[in-house]
Amino acid sequence: MMIKRSDCEIETEIGQWIIFTKGRIVIRKGEINVPLAHINEFTFLENYREEVHQLPPLHESAQKSPPVFVVDLGAETIEDEQWDSVSLRHLLFEQQDIGFSVVGRAWQYVHFLRTHQFCGQCGSHTERVNWEMAVHCHRCHHRSYPRVSPCIIVSIHNNEKLLLAKGVRHKEANMYSTLAGFVESGESLEEAVHREVFEEVGVKVKNLRYIDSQPWPFPHSIMVGFIAEYESGEIRCQENEIDDAQWFSVDALPTIPPPFSIAGQLIAKTLSQLADK
Ligand SMILES: [Zn+2]
């Protein structure tokens, strides 16, 4: 649900402002967080007052927090002494107090609007629905909602060893992580785990256990996390996806993802389960 606030509410309330310019977010110079501010502090928003939306809180506990206002400046960049911008990824990784979900949700909404300006069925201009997060075509009545793409992510262990892989796209970071991949149409989450693991590293797994999930806004995934046991097969990396994959001993792990990511959490959980055995 996305509520458009009346001008006077935006004018009077102090809020957290998530302002997008291209794929970046506006921050105060010298700070890495979403600014807590009054609209008048953003002189560059003069022509965007109609574009300000409030992101409704997802959980009751967030209702006590200041309102979150979202604005998309599109391709416009800001030249202002007071303000700077930072990439979404950098902001999310550096500053987690406003929450992965709030900034991630704001980005998914903005990304959705940017990519749904026209109806996918008849090609007419769409209009925002002001009482839910959707766009509507008034010609053919087709309605679109933000896309959420399920992805499985799995930590695989064999006795005291973890199977971790370095993706082709993250080669430079030299980081080894759990395997992950999109769920295909018509496939269950478990089937996706078996297929992805076999495609990416050529091994078979068993005893899948669901652990946790995490929204991942790059650009609109929901990561569904599992732990699985090795069953059979030798590692054979899929050329286009995996640069390297190895069995790592629990006491000699490579660089792994940070603990706030679900990959980091699955690895930590697998290690603690192995330690309890
Ligand atoms: Zn249409």
Automatic annotation (TrEMBL):
Cofactor names: Zn(2+); Mg(2+)
Pfam family, one: Zn_ribbon_NUD
Enzyme type, top EC level: hydrolase
Catalytic reactions on record: a 5'-end NAD(+)-phospho-ribonucleoside in mRNA + H2O = a 5'-end phospho-adenosine-phospho-ribonucleoside in mRNA + beta-nicotinamide D-ribonucleotide + 2 H(+)
GO biological process: NAD+ catabolic process; NADP+ catabolic process
Gene3D superfamilies reported in the protein's UniProt record: 3.90.79.20, Nucleoside Triphosphate Pyrophosphohydrolase
EC identifiers of the protein: 3.6.1.22
Matching InterPro entries: NAD-cap_RNA_hydrolase_NudC, NudC-like_C, NUDIX_hydrolase-like_dom_sf, NUDIX_hydrolase_CS, NUDIX_hydrolase_dom, Znr_NADH_PPase
Keywords assigned by UniProt, alphabetized: Hydrolase, Magnesium, Metal-binding, NAD
Protein family membership: Belongs to the Nudix hydrolase family. NudC subfamily.
Protein name: NAD(+) diphosphatase
Originating species: Alteromonas naphthalenivorans
Higher taxonomy: Bacteria, Pseudomonadati, Pseudomonadota, Gammaproteobacteria, Alteromonadales
